[in-house]
Amino acid sequence: MSEKINTVDTKAPYGMIAILFIGAFVAILNETLLNIALPAIMQEFDVNATAVQWLSTGYMLINGILIPASAFFIQRFTDRKLFMTAMALFTLGTFLASIAPVFGVLLGARMIQAAGSAIMMPLLMNVMLTAFPVEKRGAAMGMFGLVMITAPAIGPTLSGWLIEHYSWRMLFDLVLPIAIITLILAAFKLKDVTPQRAIKLDVWSLVLSSIGFGGLLYGFSSAGEKGWDNILVYGTIIIGTLALITFILRQFRMAEPMLEFRIFKYPMFALSSTISIVISVAMFSAMILMPIYVQTIRGISPMDSGLLMLPGAIVMGIMSPITGKLFDKYGARSLAVIGLTITIVTTYYFSKIGMETAYTTLVLLYTLRMFGMSMVMMPVMTNGLNQLPAHNNPHGTAMNNTLQQVSGAIGSAVLITVMNNHTTAKAEALVAKTGAMSQQIMNEAMLDGITYTFLISTWIAAIALLLAFFIKRVKPNHTMPM
């Protein structure tokens, strides 16, 4: 154990948490900032769409490999050392990206950035679980939700504005000074809160985890572009699945597993993880489908597309701390039921949009949907983590973050496939009816594919609502055998 640990009776380290918040915010923000800049990067470095997509796919893969290992890092190294290392890697990656003379350097810089950001989120969550007693965790995790939800939500809007007025390098130039200041503050202000244990890293577990989660993430994230019949897609999914099964079986045989799967014996943690997976899949529908609808079908500019989503991001930011306090008072079930009901209704209305749907209607629907989502994610996740004994917190946070990454990739792939298949079928039916192919027919077919996919998302969200009725308010059970 470390020489000194904060307990729930001591004052929560708000200064330290603020530093961690800033670090996590810029790390998550950087994930979504680059998406709108990809065409400009393709033009400057003369690379194709497949190559440039690795700036996003590679970032996600590094996260998928390192997040499962974060439970080991958090238990083995002090908070200060771990955050300083992560922030230093992120800062170095940001600097290299801002000056990258060739595409290879930019890609390598993104990988270095990802290596730093992958540790920040699990570390921040674990510090907050350790620093706050159960009855105050809702408010604390609500503030965490502010970072987790707002950063990726404002990313496209901010990116759209910067790309319109400056070079894509400004995306990194903006983040770099914040990263440097955070690193300097951490050097002087950061303390150690979580306990350490002298555990050893099982190399085979790391290898199997990397192949397993990395294979699944790559396979599913590539399916939308390459198609399910591509050997790279189904091959990496099969290899990833086999490696993941081997990894899980190995963890059950180990006294000190790298990632503890026995935590699923706690019923509320298992339920919260299941609900979070279902919500992640449903949530990605709007994030993927809305830009396609407003830009490709409606011809709305990228900047206005980003602005369409901004009120929803602001609402989520405002609601996160409020939801946290409501969770402390009323528990997760009532919040989840209300939030998911709003999400289902708004998602259903998205399945009814047409060629003439007003911009203000789209903004209102998207904002209401985000309002509903803000009442679900953090309360459900916090309720599940509350059932775990303190020594399993690193495993709980690592598991949640990993499952969100994987379910997000799977959800995106499935929804894109549903949309493409339905679009193709509709286009063929319209061509057979009219005898000619035109841009209007393609737009009509794509709109039909998008609205159908929103309808599927409505049913997916309905599954989460059904599960939410089984949520019970819990407190840590330290006696349950693991």
Automatic annotation (TrEMBL):
Its main location: membrane. It comes from the Bacteria. Coiled coil: none annotated. Keywords: Cell membrane, Membrane, Transmembrane, Transmembrane helix, Transport. SUPFAM superfamilies: MFS general substrate transporter. Residues 16-476 form the Major facilitator superfamily (MFS) profile domain. PROSITE patterns: MFS. The chain crosses the membrane at residues 12-34, 54-74, 86-106, 112-132, 144-163, 169-189, 201-219, 231-249, 269-294, 306-327, 334-351, 450-471. InterPro entries: EmrB-like, MFS, MFS_dom, MFS_trans_sf. It is a multi-pass membrane protein. It is found in: Cell membrane. Belongs to the major facilitator superfamily. EmrB family. PANTHER family: MAJOR FACILITATOR SUPERFAMILY MULTIDRUG TRANSPORTER MFSC. This is MFS transporter. The lineage of its organism: Bacteria, Bacillati, Bacillota, Bacilli, Bacillales.
